[in-house]
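Hey team,

Filing this mostly as a record. A colleague (T.K.) asked me to run one chain through the structure pipeline before their review meeting, and I want the input and output archived in the tracker in case anyone asks later how it was produced. No errors, nothing strange. Just documentation.

Input sequence:
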Amino acid sequence: MQIRIGFDIAFECPQPTPMLMMLRVHPSLGDRVIEHDYLASEPALAIDTYLDGFGNLASRTVLPAGHTRLWAEGIVEDSGQPDPVVPDARILPVQDLPEECLVYLLGSRYCETDHLGFVAWPMFGHLPENWSRVQAIVDFVHNHLKFNYALARPTRTALEAHNEQLGVCRDFAHLSIALCRAMNIPARYCTGYLGDIGVPRDPAPMDFSAWFEAYLGDRWYTFDARHNKPRIGRIVMARGRDATDVALTNSFGNATLVNFSVVTEEIGQEISQEVSEEIGTPAGGPPSRLLGAVHPVAGIA
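Output structure:
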């Protein structure tokens, strides 16, 4: 299948403000990208793109004082198959892990493994050293946290999510990652597009999503504690230790988000007129056909 992706966001700045952005699909998608999601802006800005230390396609620019619109649209080919499930994939001993996995065993800004080891080992230490142990962690997080968008907080850590028993998709991912790492299972944070493909349409406005990957056997596998079921059409934008490494935007100054719209739809899928809108073509930019609604500011947290 082919999936149309894109976003349309806008900021208000009182003065010129440098910004880092993680808004492009991941380079690992390779030739699956049929139409590239190049960044465009109004007013037209110089936007530099580079590979960061985790292999993500990052961008940087300086937003001028006043209103700035940023958008992109692309088409990605997908197999149409759900996330793989491999029950016999085993957890490797630390000494047998590839070197590039070791950083994903350590604590990080949002994943305090030192505080959560006391939770993880009594709950999961008796389970087989394979896929089932990671799945048990995912099941626990899925049932332990209550999804609450209204109470989203960009500073909430895995330990705080565990104690407060609520969060949004990033909190589900952070707690799962911290528990996996506490069990010596490499785990990394992922952000990207995840549309309502193969599942009932969610009436809420579309947003970016977060999940995680665990290293089992000889590869990384996708897990999603928020939904806790294999999904179709997951498109990775960035991977890192936690949300710090893959924030959608990092502004070095005051930048207020005033518009936020995301789309990820299978091409040919019927689109509800209630959530569709045509966005015109600004001077100097390509046409945009984003099919979303304005999202609350908290969506970019």
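Quick notes for T.K.: Confidence is low (pLDDT under 50) at residues 270-301. The CA atoms of residues 75 and 271 lie 16 Å apart.
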